[in-house]
Amino acid sequence: MITSLTGAAAGSDGTSETLTSPTDRALLGIIRAAADVVVVGAATVRAEGYVLPRRARLAVVTVSGDLDGHRLGDTMEGVLLICPEARAAEVQDRSGLPGAQVVAVAGGDDLEPAAICDALADRGLPRIVCEGGPTLAARFAAAGVIDEYCVSVAPALEAAARPFLPIHARVATDLAGMLVDEAAFSYLRLRPRR
């Protein structure tokens, strides 16, 4: 995840692209390379114009299948659409991604993070990177399914309508690593205290 000093998850253009740096993108590539799957919410796919990770699979959490604005390409081989069981057919049709595989998760429209993780692990994808957006990442944090937080802090003062991680209760963490580069970006690794 990336944030400004003021807690914004997006820069002036409404995406994280105006907050990031070459070093941040390089670290993101390293994190993705160690993952089996990158999990992201459909709202983030729409807002960011998401592209496919080079090495990991992409899993999009969606209730509706609306992915307008994506830059995922046409074939979608290897893309997973995680959705409520009752909406699987609707999500497949509406996504416009004929090569994507629907992963139907039991329960209602409010998909539980643990159920998402279990569904991915059942498909041989246990190493999960949740890239957000803010709502999905906060749900993963609240559910206690995050082993490590990797947070880049951009040296920017952006207006923040809401925090980059809108949690409602404190998550106690321990510092696992921290770097600061010449451009004044900070890179934090935090582990939840268990």
Q: How many domain units?
A: 1
Could you say which structural class the secondary elements and strand pairing correspond to? alpha/beta
Strand content: 25-35%
If classified by CATH, what would the architecture be? 3-Layer(aba) Sandwich
Helix content: 10-25%
- Tell me about the largest β-sheet: 5 strands, parallel
Weakly predicted, low-confidence segments: none
Fourth CATH level, the homologous superfamily = Dihydrofolate Reductase, subunit A
- In angstroms, what is the radius of gyration? 16 Å
**Which H/E pattern describes the elements?**
EHEHEEHEHEHEEE
Morphology call: globular
State the distance separating the first and last CA atoms.
22 Å
Number of helices: 5
- According to CATH, the fold-level topology is Dihydrofolate Reductase, subunit A
| Strand order in the sheet with the most strands | 5-4-3-2-6
Average pLDDT rating: 89
Find the count of extended strands (DSSP E, 2+ residues): 9
Please write the CATH class name.
Answer: Alpha Beta
What this model shows, in words?
- The chain starts with a strand and ends with a strand.
- It has helices at residues 22-33, 42-48, 88-95, 113-122, 134-143, and strands at residues 2-4, 37-41, 57-61, 80-84, 101-105, 128-132, 149-154, 173-180, 186-192.
- The strands form 2 sheets. The chain has a 5-stranded parallel beta sheet, sandwiched between helices. The protein has a 4-stranded mixed beta sheet with strand order 1-7-9-8, with no helix packed on it.
- It has 5 helices and 9 strands.
- The protein is globular.
- The model has no long low-confidence stretch (mean pLDDT 89).
- The chain has 194 residues and is of the alpha/beta class.
- It is 24% helix and 25% strand.
- Strand 8 (173-180) and strand 9 (186-192) form a beta hairpin.
- The chain has a single domain (2-192), classed as 3-Layer(aba) Sandwich (Dihydrofolate Reductase, subunit A), CATH 3.40.430.
- It comes from Microbacterium lushaniae.
- Pathway: Cofactor biosynthesis; riboflavin biosynthesis.
- GO terms for molecular function: 5-amino-6-(5-phosphoribosylamino)uracil reductase activity.
- Residues 1-157 form the Bacterial bifunctional deaminase-reductase C-terminal domain.
- InterPro entries: DHFR-like_dom_sf, RibDG_C, Riboflavin_Biosynth_HTPR.
